[in-house]
Queue: 3 jobs
Job 1
Amino acid sequence: MRIVFIGPPGAGKGTQAVQLVKHLKIPHLSTGDMLRQAMADGNSVGQHASSYIQSGRLVPDAVVISIIGQRLEQPDCDRGCLFDGFPRTQGQAAALDEYLHQSGKQIDLVLALQVPENLLIERLLGRGRGDDNLDTIRERFKQYEEGTKPLFEYYRGSGVLQTIDGTGTPDEVQARIRAATD
Ligand code: AMP
């Protein structure tokens, strides 16, 4: 099964993804984690991504498409995987579809986590990650509205989109996600 998590910053994608991949026994592909790892390693991808991440802008499509493409080559992705924070633009979604279609695969389910903005800001400021300050948060919301929201229509068109109420405790949200995936 191939699942995509879409949601604004602070919607709980990462937390929910960790629980769901344990249950489904599929790899967790988080572009945010991969980019942060590249930054920690100090390699060329990390150096390129760093200024985008620090300012809350999206890293260019070519960079993230390339790291996801390489990850999908690994045999543990054959049975399926969970994409967390990717795709975030129409260009990334089209590249992913094309990539999967080449090997007769597809996205089976897109889960859109919905959380009101005041709660998102509260959660982000409580999290304390390096890129979680008010200016960066505002920029990330803007990028989400402009770049990522159009993906709702893209995936609704292929009949795989399901919206999930992302409010409540992590366990409550996980239960709603399980009901959608089982
Ligand atoms: P995340 O951990 O998903 O919140 O991502 C943290 C930051 O990494 C984002 O604010 C972007 O700068 C960058 N990033 C992560 N995934 C992507 C993506 N699919 N496309 C572009 N930039 C991304």
Job 2
Amino acid sequence: MEIKNPRFLKSSQKLSELPPDDKPEYAFVGRSNVGKSSLINRLCNRKQLAKTSGTPGKTQLINHFLIDDTWYIVDLPGYGYAQVSKKERRVFQSMITEFVVERESLMCVMVLIDSRIKPQKIDLEFIEFLGVNEVPFVIVFTKTDKPKKTELAANIELFKNTMLETWEELPPMFQTSAVKGTGKEKLLGYIDEVNKLF
Ligand code: GDP
């Protein structure tokens, strides 16, 4: 599948502002700076559809992109070192939690993981939260052009093994690079298949 007509639809500050849940949605989420905006732009063949943020954790809104008039990419605020007050962070966190758990049209959460580094507690905790709430998700490793091949393989292996300490089965996993375009076809192919289940 190729995306032909991506467009920014709206930013929602509250769940009551969300667009109607009448199309399949895929939420992209990960630590600030994981490469989320770059990946969304690469998937959509656009340079600046999603804003690559200089300030980590600045985008504290739920952004909807309407893709080819049939499905949505949802850009969720990055978790991690958001430069906002604790109170603000709690409000956003509860909003994201509610969105992910309650949203009927959310087909899958794309959990972005930086392939350059060892498994991070905050990522594993978020994955655990998805599991407990039975939210479907896949793992998307980002920036795979960066580490050496052996290092990449070792990081992914370690991530899998860490997950297998608490999970019986592993979710689908994708290796991507926004710089090289790696993994784009497979990820969009997956979305194309899941769209049929809506
Ligand atoms: P976000 O905060 O998760 O939206 O991350 P961005 O998309 O803004 O990317 C954060 C930084 O990582 C930027 O400096 C990007 O240029 C860089 N980056 C993003 N994706 C890749 C990638 O696939 N490969 C490499 N080498 N760098 C990347």
Job 3
Amino acid sequence: MEREPTASNWVNHIIVQEEIDKYLVKGKNFINSQEIFSKLAKNSSPSQEKIRDILQKSLSVKTLSPDETAALLNVTSPDLWEEIFHTALEVKKKVYDNRIVFFAPLYCSNLCVNNCAYCGFREANNREVRRILSMDEIKRETASVLKEGHKRLILVFGEHYRSDVDYMSAAVKAVYSVEEIALQSGRASSIRRVNINAAPMEISKLQILKGAGIGTYQVFQETYHPETYQTVHPENTVKGNYQWRLYALHRAMDAGIDDVAIGALFGLYDWRFEVMGLLYHTLDLERHFGVGPHTISFPRMTPASGSSLSSDSRWNVSDDDFKKLVAVLRLSVPTAGMIVTAREKAEIKRTVLKLGCTQTDASTRIGIGAYSELKKDNDLDTKQFTIGDPRDLDEVIQEVARMGFIASFCTAGYRCGRTGDTIMGMLSHCDEGKFCKLNAVLTFREYLSDYASDATRQLGESLIMKEIGEIESMDYFKKKPHLLNKFRSEYSEILGGKRDLYL
Ligand code: SAM
Ligand code: SF4
């Protein structure tokens, strides 16, 4: 009879040293703390002209160099910061147009073998109520999320043998299998893109995830500062291996998952260092694979069950600095999508959406089973951390529509093979943004017909008319009449009841 693996023998087989070593250059990884500190020091008082030159480079959709990013991080003049903020939104509009992509997180399990000092899921936290969802429960959660109008999910897991790659793959397939009828239109709907946030894996396991049909694979380095990393991730845990995590996304690329998502947990160490770390990570992915990250995340640490660090860190990032780091990231990696999550309060979300963020979540419940079991979701001991914006999707969509942004549920890029270097090449030539605009309108149209409240529908319809007017008058589309015609006919078909049409 086959014995169930115990946590202790399972963890011993996770890290494959050759799958770290193969990416090192002369035995070294791409984070050199001394180099980061000296770039920050060398560029400590950049001239106004230099900053303006850097802003021009971002506007031409080029990844900045470490010196350039360090210079931006050292700006002190409030007026110059205003120029930076303004340019960040301009860059976003140029690359991604005025759309905001919506998604929902689905927490599948809070079992974890690690002991990250900031996280409620850590093994030593006896207060956490442990639970792993069955496939039926995952389907129920998916149905509840679909009722809100979502089309994109990110599944989140602790690291544990009970939520191993086979469990994750089954979860992905379970999500895709669910069909739910939209109350307002009676049309069937399902999740069209499942992303994953899970611990680093070896390449053969990542290939299994790819085979299950995942979109993006997301791993946050948490902190790029090696000494801090060792302090918050005990050495005797899998997560204690800094380099295993640092190359998680290189391995994903090698496994054929070409949309990878990086991030840092802000509040563990100096925010300027972390921004530099994210840039070096981008540059190393570009060097190895010719393409950078699909998205960048910059979660700020929020209070977690049983974690004093999570509510009392000397490195906590103020709202002012948060704005700065978002804008500098937007300018440093113009092609990357940027995700602000419900960890942030509504007011901050509003601010950073105007600084170039491209994606956000809404109707967010992070308790295990919290979507379908209609729990209040306010008990810290059933989840990973605290959220700042629990508002429903409809409310957030209405708000962004008032700000002039169009909500998008587009999953076309991934389904049409516009991923990895194809999509990044298109983004750098500002072509993908045009497709996004069309697909945003089509998916927003679906949302308005199927789920929106009356107020959101009214507002959304006038925004759509404005968008269509812009599309009709754009030279890019005038030169591509076949695209415009296809868009027009798909738009009418959606009004007539068809669903899931894209370009
Ligand atoms: N266990 C996997 C791992 O560590 O990669 C999945 C990640 S965890 C469930 C998702 C992310 O939540 C972490 O990578 C971390 O950045 C973030 N997180 C953990 N504790 C947090 C806190 N107190 N506040 C905000 N974000 C937190
Ligand atoms: Fe586990 Fe991830 Fe939380 Fe660390 S951050 S304790 S690995 S769930």
